[in-house]
Amino acid sequence: xxxxxxxxxSKIHSWTDAFGFRLNASQTNRxxxxxxxxxxxxxxxxxxxxxxxxxxxxxxxCFDAYGEKINVHSLLDLQAAFxxxxxxxx
Length: 90
Fold this sequence. Notes:
Layout: H1 2-19, E1 22-29, E2 34-41, E3 44-51, E4 59-63, E5 69-72, H2 75-87
Antiparallel strand pairs: 1-2, 2-3, 3-4, 4-5
């Protein structure tokens, strides 16, 4: 399971780097060793909760155009939400 989570983390970061997502904010809770990062691209936002001691437990959450929370379990989930958001801009 550790390998799968690491792959998800690297796949999402490779994809976001290719599209040009920007890091908007980063906060670290030192007592829990959790870093929360907020990324955005135009009108699309997603949040990453990165567990410093256990990177395989990292979680990604994004929001659709209506403000509904979408848990990201794969790169496809993030891509689908992103392209749906971008298509509604027209």
